[in-house]
Amino acid sequence: MKPVSSRAQLWLVAAGYAAVIVIAAILLLARYLQEVSHPADVSAASGMYAAGDMMLVFFIAFLFMVPTCFLLRTIAKLEAFYTTYSQLLLIFSLSAPVCLALIHLDPDRMPQSLGFLCLYRLIWSPFILVAIIVSRLVARFALAKKLTSYALLIEGVTLCIAVGLLLKRH
């Protein structure tokens, strides 16, 4: 069997992203039409609708992770590109402990928009952790492996500390 070229793999990944975008648009449109057609139900059970919206967002994020795994596998063959990606991943993973520190240390003095940004960064941390794990698994070169391992350590420890702080409060 003839191997698929990198260009063809990238086109397949792009088609995967396009398919996920179409599916997400259909799901979001269906959710919107449901809420518009039943406004009394939405106001009566607003918490349940909000929970459903959050589950839908998490499901769509999971759908986007599938072509992302294939994209990471494809670009892992290019040392310079994947090393740069690993450096950016490490820098991005450093935002998790910064956000946790900002939220935990002095939430009252922080601007509300920054607080929401930090909260959302921490909420998405499990998905980011999965992406870092996949990045580490597909890494082929020593520097990329080292950088993704550091990013994985930072993100994982921050997530564990955040969960610990959450459990400590209750």
Output mean pLDDT: 91
Residue stretches low in confidence (pLDDT < 50, at least 5 long) are none
Q: What is the strand content? A: under 5%
What is the first-to-last residue Cα distance?
Answer: 57 Å
Element pattern in H and E: HHHHHHHH
How helical, in percent, are the residues?
Answer: over 70%
Helix/strand/pairing category: mainly alpha
From the alpha-carbon coordinates, what is the Rg to the nearest angstrom?
19 Å
Count of discrete alpha- or pi-helical segments spanning 4 or more residues: 8
Query: How many domain regions?
Result: 2
Strand-helix topology:
Elements: H1 6-37, H2 39-44, H3 46-75, H4 79-93, H5 95-105, H6 112-123, H7 125-138, H8 142-169
Helix pairs in contact: 1-3, 3-7, 4-8, 5-6, 7-8
How is this structure best described in words?
The chain has 170 residues and is mostly helical. The chain folds into two domains: 1-75; 79-170. 87% of the residues lie in helices and 0% in strands. The chain is built from eight helices and no strands. The protein has helices spanning 6-37, 39-44, 46-75, 79-93, 95-105, 112-123, 125-138, 142-169. The termini are far apart. The mean pLDDT is 91.
